[in-house]
Task: structure prediction
Amino acid sequence: QGQEKLSCNPKKENGTHVVLCELGNPMKAGARITVDMELSVSGLEDMGDAITFHLQLRSKNSPSPSNASVTVTVPVEAEAEMELRGNSLPAVMVLPTSWHRLEGSQRLEDHGIKVEHVYELHNKGPGTVSGVTLSLAVPHLLGDHVVLYLLELGTEGGMNCSHHPALNPDQV
Result:
């Protein structure tokens, strides 16, 4: 008839995480109760697509083989919002129409003006992410003409990177 907060205590029992909730003592014979539980579970990133709870009603007073037990499976959906930010330094580059790169030169300035592109991939949460793949296509050729001479590719923050075979082909 009334609503009461349950007193629940988490503990480990035989390698399993258990939450014990005291429903009331003594309880009248034939009493019927309804319990709504809200559980907050962390660290579900590697749990797969569902988590299973085993719920059981036990009585301390009279052990009975009819102790009710039910299994509840709840789907797990990871949520994370990724954001990609990019910047080019300088932001605008205009080459003279008469400029041509010097074939065979090992000097950077003979291959063009340095333009640096920086991309940042951010996880805005709330969940963590792993196994993210970012594919970035850079137009380095226009027909047979070099538009951008790709010199190097670097990463920060423990990321693995594979690069296009056209990276620094003249070993400048």
